[in-house]
Design brief:
Blueprint lengths: L13 H17 L4 E4 L11 E5 L5 E8 L8 H19 L5 E5 L6 H9 L7 E5 L1 H9 L2 H8 L2 H8 L12 H14 L5 E7 L5 E7 L4 H4 L3 E6 L6 H13 L3 E4 L4 E7 L13 E4 L6 E8 L5 E14 L3 E8 L3 E8 L5 E7 L6 H13 L5 E6 L2 E7 L13 H17 L11 H14 L4 E3 L4 E6 L5 H6 L3 E14 L2 E19 L9 E7 L5 E4 L35 E3 L3
Parallel strand pairs: 3-4, 4-5, 21-25
Antiparallel strand pairs: 1-2, 2-3, 6-7, 8-10, 9-11, 12-13, 12-17, 13-14, 14-15, 15-16, 17-18, 19-24, 20-23, 21-22, 22-23, 22-24
Helix pairs in contact: 10-11, 11-12
Length: 575
């Protein structure tokens, strides 16, 4: 029986040696922000067993590791056959121009062996190194779970904690310490799978296996086979099960009465679900990798784009699935069928509580899909996914309903003007919605009817010309420049240099008999119609403002007044 914490390198076979070293190298470079791949196909992999990529997009080849299971080394009689193998692998690998090439063997190289390996480089610009037993032991010791997986003996593990779980938990930290010990043992069962577990108040144990590396399911597969009674699942459960089974994305909890004939194949430590257990499929930790989602034209010019995050990537019986969450409440699910250029793109939008400007960007991206040439997902400068829109894309969920679409656009325009962020509300009163709409139209250079201005009260100076005073006794047009404030979900948004206008107004003196006091006048629209409000500065030069209705979907409003034959004098008054 080996000593705990020491790998018996000389007793291993080649598959065991390869498995331990590959797991170590993948973790070693993962911790450095690099990407290491263990390659399948011994002898046909171009001189590579593990290669390492670096750089912002992890696309630049940096290091190649060549694993040679030579427990006796490669000197003397062993060198006659083994040195040509090493040299052949080196010459193959060097064609790909790595910065570094490393030979990994299960024993420490002799000085002459190390010198011979380094001489392979000759005058070529490549760093050559050898990893032997001492280096492997040191790196494994720094990663206890990998060391435990490499040296695991189930009986020794049990003996090591024997009696501890039965001991009294008298100290405040005893329980935590005992659980950490158990977690260390559970986490050390495999170089590919970690373990999370909890014990409920009823004594029920929940264990979740966590992949230590992306290819864990390939390197150490754990397979559960069972039958599912679809008629015992709800519609949502059936849809979720279909996505998990066919595309490997999402999750679903299957009740015990919907499962039969459960069988598990895999390593001896793998959990075996029992009768009465709830089986949850999927449910991996969310990735949250940042990306950009965009639509493009035939020249690859961006039409619309939003920030997003890859939350889930999986593979099932039909193909691959990708789940994206984007700013503005946009959700995108891509279903890519294996061996088929066709793809399905499903879109959902949950905009309540989202920033209005982000939500508008998301809406505009969805609306651009039918007329765009392509749909892309980018990470940095790399295109991760590229789909042709049109016949190759499945059904797309319709954009936001008209009311929500208009409200979000109104809030986005107001946010840009006021430099204030606004979130999409769950609901609004009619008055609050109309306030937002009126302000948006004013910012667009339109004129609106403002019910708050049903009449204006002004004071006329005593020195006003008599002719002008007399004209105010009849019908006239009036325009007053003022600063007007609108309430947008509790924020007062001011429009400076707005104009309060009415083309057909009439005035009434409040104190017509008091010649000594300044004249006070109430000005109303004909038939008590409200005043107009517009902002001339929001119009391009040479354009005139047009009176607009609010046109809020689902709202009923009176028609615009039909002013005709207005020959009244236009008068500007300070207010």
């Amino acid at each position: 029986m080996p000593v705990i914490g020491q790998v018996p390198w000389h007793q291993l076979d080649q598959p065991s040696f390869d498995r331990i070293v590959e797991a170590l190298l993948v973790r070693y470079h993962q911790e450095r922000g690099e990407h290491a791949d263990a390659l399948d196909g011994r002898g046909g992999d171009g001189g590579r067993d593990v290669d390492v990529h670096v750089g912002p997009d992890l696309e630049e080849l940096d290091t190649i590791y060549q694993l040679k299971f030579f427990p006796e080394g490669f000197s003397g009689d062993h060198g006659k056959s083994r040195r040509p193998q090493i040299k052949k692998s080196f010459e193959k690998a060097i064609k790909d121009r790595p910065r570094r090439w490393v030979l990994v063997i299960p024993r420490n190289a002799t000085p002459k062996e190390r010198q011979w390996v380094r001489a392979l480089a000759q005058k070529r610009k490549v760093e050559v190194a050898v990893w032997g037993r001492a280096k492997l032991d040191a790196e494994l010791a720094a990663r206890p779970d990998l060391l435990a997986a490499a040296t695991r003996d189930a009986l020794v593990d049990v003996m090591r904690i024997m009696g501890q779980e039965k001991a009294a938990l008298t100290g405040p930290g005893d329980l935590a310490e005992r659980l950490r010990d158990l977690h260390s043992v559970a986490n050390g069962r495999s170089a590919f799978w970690g373990s999370e577990f909890s014990v409920g108040a009823d004594g029920g144990v929940v264990e979740t296996l966590i992949a230590k590396r992306p290819d864990a399911h390939l390197r150490e597969p754990i397979v559960h086979t069972f039958n599912v009674f679809g008629d015992r699942l709800g519609q949502d459960e059936r849809t979720a099960l279909q996505l998990v089974a066919q595309y490997g994305i999402g999750s679903v909890a299957l009740p015990p009465d919907a499962i039969s004939d459960m069988k598990t194949t895999g390593p001896e430590w793998a959990p075996r679900p029992g009768a009465g257990d709830i089986i949850e499929l999927g449910g991996r930790p969310r990735l949250h990798d940042p990306v950009v989602v965009r639509t493009v034209d035939e020249d690859k010019v961006t039409i619309r784009s939003v920030r997003g995050w890859v939350e889930d990537v999986g593979e099932g019986g039909v193909g691959r699935g990708v789940v994206l969450e984007c700013s503005g409440g946009l959700g995108v699910t891509l279903l890519l069928n294996r061996g088929d250029s066709a793809a399905t793109l499903n879109v959902t939008q949950a905009m309540s509580g989202e920033n209005a400007q982000d939500a508008l960007q998301a809406i505009e991206l969805v609306e651009s899909i039918p007329t765009a040439t392509g749909f892309e997902v980018l990470r940095g400068s790399s295109v991760l996914i590229s789909l042709r829109t049109g016949p190759d894309v499945g059904p797309v969920v319709a954009s936001a309903p008209a009311y929500e679409r208009q409200l979000i656009e109104d809030l986005a325009v107001i946010a840009a003007y006021s430099r204030m962020p606004f979130d999409v509300p769950d609901s609004l009163t009619t008055h609050a919605r109309c306030e937002i709409r009126r302000l948006r139209l004013i910012l667009d250079g339109r004129a609106i009817l403002e019910p708050a201005f049903g009449r204006l009260t002004t004071t006329l100076r005593k020195d006003i010309p008599e002719r002008l005073r007399d004209s105010l006794g009849g019908e006239f047009a009036i325009a007053i420049t003022a600063s007007i404030s609108y309430d947008v979900m509790g924020q007062a948004i001011q429009v400076k240099d707005a104009v309060v206008y009415h083309p057909r107004a009439h005035g009434e003196y409040l104190n017509p008999t008091d010649e000594k006091a300044p004249s006070q006048m109430v000005i109303r629209g004909v038939d008590d119609s409200p005043f107009w409000v517009y902002a001339p500065g929001r119009l391009p030069d040479g354009e005139r403002s047009q009176l607009s209705t609010l046109d809020i979907p689902g709202f009923t409003e009176p028609p615009l007044p039909a002013y005709v034959g207005n020959n009244a004098t236009v008068v500007s008054l300070s207010h």
